[in-house]
Each structure stands twice: as structure tokens, then as C-alpha cells.
Here is the input.
Amino acid sequence: MRAVSFSQRDTNTHYRRPEAGRVPVGIGRKRMRVVVTGGSGFVGSHLVDRLIERGDEVIVIDNFFTGRQENVVHHLDNPRFELIRHDVVEPILLEVDQIYHLACPASPVHYKYNPVKTIISFTNVMGTLNMLGLAKRIGARFLLTSTSEVYGDPLEHPQKETYWGHVNPIGVRSCYDEGKRTAETLTMDYHRGAGVEVRIARIFNTYGPRMCLDDGRVVSNFVSQVDGLMALMEGDHIGPFNLGNPGEFTMLELAQMVKETIDESATIEFRENTADDPHKRKPDISKAKELLNWEPKVPLREGLPKMASDFRNRILNENEGN
Here is the structure.
């Protein structure tokens, strides 16, 4: 891994990239310099794969609270890739064209572990402020990965982006729900007040290879949401955009599908729901389909076995290493 150092500079100084000239005919798309916070995490690492694949230079910033270096280790010898161990609660100076801000523990197992740190430090407030400040100083485009949790336990079904939500501000999940709502507020305030180019995506539950083994979320949409994030970043629309699977199923139906596709010998246990857990949630993705030309492509029956295969391989590798 290459070491990266940064000189101390006045953080109030505004740095602007020189204006790009007209691209000559026959020359392809300009290579972007992109930073992905939380880029060694589940969704982030898949996004990094796609950005590297299309020829961009990518810098991953991660404190490895939930991310795993193994998710991006295959890029370490690529000269267009850099990995920086850093917590975005602390400012950082970089020169980039685009900022994908994904850093945040998205699983209740992780964000409930230290709720105060979740809302203040784990990117929702301080981290978002720092990355928005960076975008303002250098003139980068900023994309916030928000969440369907901003809708809380919704009274509107399905949920359109115009719905303001139904969130318990003092509940056990509010550190994440209200933190993300605050992050959206900060993002729009920087756009309106400072002219920062921003994009907002509201991601619904996601599953697939590289997911944490103890994640605890219900699966709904394979990691094709990465395509939606890239389409949003490159397009002309601020958002917010719902990125999720509008297909509905009950928990029992999901459990039965897991038995059918993964392990017929599995048993189903019925347990009481956790506090403030949404009873129903379904994204209205008509806006994303129309303006981003995006919709989920991997059916649940096809995606579940892929995730299970990845889990088995990782468990076997971990056991062999012990």
C-alpha cells in the first residue's frame, strides 16, 4: 500500500481546479479523480470497482469500522488507486473532481453500538460537514448516499421522494434516521448557500457479495444500486432519488425463499420486532426510472444464492486461517 502524506495548509483557503477546455473530437470521456468515503465497505467497494473499470483515478477514505481492506485489496497495485486510512470526522485536503460520500455504518447492529458517535461522528454530521467543506473549497461535485430510513415508519406507501417521513426523534434508531436527515439538510444548505454541486440518493436495503456477515438488515436489492449512484453523479438532477427494489414480500415469504434457494434444511424462528422498525417500506422509483434510466435488475431468487456463496467462501477462508 502506498503511503500518502498531506502538507498542512490553511483550511479556509479556496482551491479551484483550472477550467477544462473543450475535448477534441475523437478523445473519450475525461478521466475523473474521484474520492469515495467508506470505499472499503459493502456498497462502496463495488462502486470503486466500477469507477476503476471505467478508467477513473480513485481515492478511498475509510476508518475500517465496518469496511474491510479485503474488499479493495485487488486494487492496491493499480497506479490509479489510493487507499487512505482516515476518519472523515477529521478534515482532509485532497484535489478531486467528484466526492462520493458513503462513509457511515448502515446496519442497526453497527450504528446502535455507539449511537452518539453515529449521529455526530460517523459521517452524518461532522463527516458530511467536512466533505461538503472540501467540495466547496475545490469545486468538486458532491454525492450524499442517504437512506430510506429518512422515511422512518412511513405513513405513505409506497414512498415518493416528496414524502417528509414519520420518524421517532427519540427512538433507538433515531441516531441513524435523524443523522441522515440532518446530512440531507446540510447538503442542500451548502448547495443553496454556497453553490456546491450536490446529488442525493436514498438507498433502500441492499445485499450481495462483501456484505458484513453480521449485517442484520433485510435484503431487498442487489448491489446494482451502484449504477444508480453513478448515473446520478454524472447527470443533471440533484435529487433526492429513491434507489431500491419496489418488489414487496413479507418476512415469512423471504424466509421461505431463503430455504428454497439456499438451504432447504433451515428452520424459521419467529421473534418480536425491534423498536421503531418500519412495518412496511416500498420505494417509488418512477423518478429514478425516468430521469436516471435506472431500475434494479437482479431478481431476489438470482441474487440470494450469489450472496450465500460469497458468505460460505469467506467463512471457510476465515476458519482455515485460524
